[in-house]
Amino acid sequence: MATSCESTVLKPDGKLNSHVKIPIAHPRSSSTIRFDPPKTHDMVRSLFDPTLKKSFLECCITATIIGNVILCYYAYQHLGANTTKIIFLSQYIFWRLSYNLGIGIVLHYQSHYESLTNFAKKHTLFDKKANNLLSRFVKFEISAKYQKGDSLYRYPEEWNTWLLFRQFVDLILMQDFTTYMLYVVISLPHNDILNNITSFNSIGIRVWLGVLMVLFNIWVKIDAHSVVKDYAWYWGDFFFLQDANLVFDGVFNVFPHPMYSIGYIGYYGLSLISGDHHVLFVSILGHCLQFLFLKYVETPHIERIYGSDSSDEEESIDDKMVKQLDNYSKPLVTTFLGFKNFDKFKPTDYITLITVASIVIGCTILNPSFVTLSKIALTTKIVSSVINMTILYKQSNSKWFTSLYLKNGYNEIYAYQMWQFIYNLHSTINYILLVLQCYYHFVKCDSGSYNTITFGLLLLAIQIWCNTEIFHSIKEFGWFYGDFFLPNLIDKRKLKNDGIYRYLNNPERVFGVAGIWGTVLINNFSNWNLWLATTWTMFNWFTVKFIETPHLLKVYGTKPTSSGFEKTLTKYKFGKDFKSLIDKVDQLLDDYLFTSLVPKQSVAEADREGDWESIINMLLIREQTVKNLQGTGHFNLDIVNINDENTIRIPEEIEIKWAVTNEAFHKDDWIGLYKVVETGEDRLTTKIPSQGHWSAVSSSSSYSEDHQKILHFDSNDHFTYGSIKFDKSILCFEEGIYEFRYHSANSHDVVMISKPFKLLFPQFKETVKDVDQLIATTKQFLKQCGVLINDNKFDLNRNKYFTGKTLQNWYKSTMDTDVSVVYMKRTNFDIDIITKKVWQIKQVLDNLE
Questions:
Q1: pLDDT mean by block of 10 residues, the chain; 849 residues
Q2: Is 633 found in the same domain as 517?
Q3: Strands 240-242 and 636-639, bridge-based pairing
Q4: Are residues 710 and 777 both part of a single domain?
Q5: Which residues lie on this side of the membrane: Cytoplasmic?
Q6: Whole-number Å distance between alpha carbons of 389 and 391
Q7: Contact predicate 311/500, CB 8 Å
């Protein structure tokens, strides 16, 4: 594309001129011949500016334009509107094919073989000595393009061939534009437009929207030409090259291929103004032909000359995973046309296929109403979105989903594959229900007009294109949020900035729901489709805003840079004001959602140590820990072996000293161990069972010996006192804040309560350095608890209070991770196997951070 560079160049007068900022060019076949291209003018100035010299072909082009206008008027007056439409529609098709097919073929051969340039050289068209008729005409024609004092003989054949090629391009493009515009003018409902242009009704809104689209189209063309100049406008790099790279500025920073994409938005604006579906279909045909020209002519040439900005050249993470991992294959991806990466040996792929078939067959057999199907589609979208967002949120913050599978004996790759299956299944179900819902509305309800249905399908096509471009850029790994599950596989911690991400940071926010809003048009603005589209958009926005963006900051250490659209928008004052407004609204939403809807961090979510300390202090302040509930006597219930931090480590025996007045004592008094949070506010009566965690205080009680853990018992004239122990046979093996309660006789009436204390597992996080040390520590702990047999096996029957859940909590306390009880059972509670698995999980999770 046209840029300037500093170089030493040979000026047309043959003198050496150093360090002048000018665009330097050279023929494609030779980089040694350097020349300074003379000034050229755009198509409109060349044809209609009376101050510029006109060539013979330019005069012919102007004459044909005037002739077509006269023909249109005459045909409309004498042959009628329908015949005139046919005449100019036929002309438009001819000139459009001349453009996309004719010029396309010429440029294809010029790109590959320089056919036009070689033809000019072979027939010496620009040779000063050549005197044949064709040479004289060609030299006469392009001599008008040079300023006075300049000569075509000072420039290489490539340049002169391009100038001649431009004349024929001007002829085809101007006739293409003129015949299309005349066809549209004839199709306009002039009376309807004039009568409703000032009214706020459907016709008035449609007309003004169309006018805005046409004006936007004009701006796109003007801005595009100001960026690429005549050099790229007329495909100059098919003939010669300038010392410059591809330019991404202005409108080229906003949309991919703006000359071919939004550069034709005026077509659809004119279709809206006319309200004629025939005009719309003709516009779509012309636009599709233009895209074919882009795909098969221009894009291959750009990639050949400038290289591709695609990431295809780099081996994707998915390709590396397939090569390096024996049990990994690319995930199933449901596309608009079917399934991609279907693996006949993966059961999950068949589940997705069977689900789709079941939904379609079920709807065919049951034949639900449109409203019923809409309710199902809306409910399914809400439920599946909440599930997906929950998984992603918890995975981002704590690797929850991966940990879930690791705990059950699977690896992190399998966990990621299961997420891929869940995500694709949800997407497939949502889209198949949406398609069926649209079909049922089309069949059973009033469908929209040809125009609304067609525009709805165009929005659907935009979403399909957007999804295709996103997938092409980020591949399967990005499509399935791979950086949430396997961030350790990312070699370069750099966000994508190519493909569609060059223009928009989050294209799925806008174009990713275009097709969903297209169903609103297709279903004639059905309320159910409005609800579906709004719900879809809301969940899409919420996922990007509150889950994806914070996670990207964690993984890549930075937020996405300003997109091309944002950079271009902020060049203009109204753009800066608009962005400022959006930022303020965004901040207000953040403040509202996080201060009003999201609850503040509760005590239960705080740090465990700080949390428990605050609860203990609260209990100590709220009431005395030793209470006289019988009168004014002296009562005492103390824990002997508690440390200064109010902590006892499992499975240490706990010794409790007690004392009550003789009047309050009964031989069947007993002491129970309870979690503070479970006893509630009632301090006079214990309303929950002790679950076997209790002991009698007197050997003369009527209780069994299993619950007589008496160390000492005595009395005097005033008091009865003693001590008991809570050993591993009646101790709790669950961490928490506990208290002892002294109960009167064989009842749950509370006589006194000990001060609360923390019951915790021993802490070895800092001392355990390898798996062998963890195995030894675990076995030692289990021996102390009396549940280890054969020096390697955990026995569930040794202590009914020490369960598989207890062992799971031990690992979690020691290593911040654990395995499921189901996995433990599969290993027959082999401590070596279980502990090695825990260590492996810990290493995997640490590696994923």
A1: 32 37 65 80 84 87 93 92 94 96 94 91 86 88 82 86 92 95 89 70 82 91 84 88 70 82 90 89 94 92 77 68 82 87 91 95 92 94 96 92 90 92 96 92 76 88 89 89 88 76 82 90 89 94 88 79 69 67 68 51 42 57 45 73 88 93 91 90 87 92 86 90 93 92 92 91 83 91 92 90 92 87 91 91 84
A2: no
A3: unpaired
A4: no
A5: 77-85, 189-199, 253-264, 372-375, 439-451, 531-849
A6: 5
A7: no
